[in-house]
Write a structure and sequence with these properties.
2 helices, four-stranded antiparallel beta sheet, 35% strand, alpha+beta, 15% helix
């Protein structure tokens, strides 16, 4: 019995020692240097959002182009278009709403403000050039009545 115990301990010690041995050395790297250089996946894939080192501070910024609230069982969206505040009311509270806004200069040097809202896959684009706002749907066709915000150029 004594020999079996000693033999078992010796076998365990031998296995443990060999498991700690690094036959390839400390400087072994299974991936050759330069493998990922020029690859479009790294590092650009994980930029912005929660991968941004400043993401915590951006939580307070939120969405400044629209305010969405629920009032009396209806969804109310408040926006600023062409410097004026507008409100649209949509029936119900279970809606899918997304908004974007941006400003750019067109080739003629005019400042163009664009506000886009999509409600349940229905898109409205408010484009303001030189103080005149045009409302189109997602296909670029003009929407009469100024869309849900009833924006009319003055």
């Amino acid at each position: 019995m004594r020999y079996a115990t000693v033999l078992s301990l010796a076998l365990l010690l031998f296995t443990y020692v060999n498991a700690q041995k690094d036959p390839l050395g400390n400087n072994f790297n299974p991936i050759s240097p330069g493998t990922f250089q020029g690859n479009s996946i790294w590092p650009g894939t994980f930029r912005g959002g929660v991968f941004d080192s400043n993401w915590r501070n951006q939580l307070g910024i939120g969405n400044h182009n629209a305010t969405v609230t629920i009032e009396d069982g209806q969804t109310v969206v408040m926006v600023t278009i062409n410097g004026e505040n507008y409100t649209a009311t949509f029936p119900g509270t279970n809606l899918s709403i997304s908004t974007t806004s941006g400003t750019y200069n067109n080739p003629n040097g005019q400042v163009v403000d664009v506000f886009t809202i999509t409600v349940n896959n229905q898109t409205y684009v408010y484009t303001t050039i030189d103080g005149k706002t045009t409302v189109t749907n997602g296909s670029g066709q003009v929407v009469s009545g100024g869309g849900p915000f009833h924006v009319t150029s003055r």
